[in-house]
Amino acid sequence: MYLLLKYTNLGIYSIVVTTAVIMTVINFVFTPMYAAYSIKLQPLGIYKVLIRHICSVIIMVVIFKGITLIYMPHNWAGLILEALIMALLGIIIHGVTMLNKTEKDKELKKLNQIAQKIMH
Fold first, then answer.
1. Separation of alpha carbons 91 and 74, rounded Å
2. So what's the pLDDT on residue 8?
3. C-alpha dihedral (89, 91, 58, 73), degrees to nearest 10
4. What is the reported pTM?
5. 4 near 17, Cβ under 8 Å?
6. How far apart are CA 57 and CA 63, in angstroms?
């Protein structure tokens, strides 16, 4: 932090950057390793899930940014509609990237049962 304050023009932002870097290292290196150790799993298994989460977030950010470039709401109703669309897309994207085939089949079966109850 001192080096950024002294030798860059970042000013007060250097404190934020330093904190962000330190917290990122802690949350992506030490926390998963300790969690794996605590619950007696291989760290690689936790990192596989973590990487899938990161991929899911990147996909959602790109798609949501595209949506905001196509349609920028100009009133509350438009904002609420866009938020609902993004939430539904986020659920779908996250489900596709995070669930394995068995879990996807199970969730689709649940959705099918709910749809049948609604239709009857």
1. 25
2. 83
3. 40
4. 0.72
5. yes
6. 10
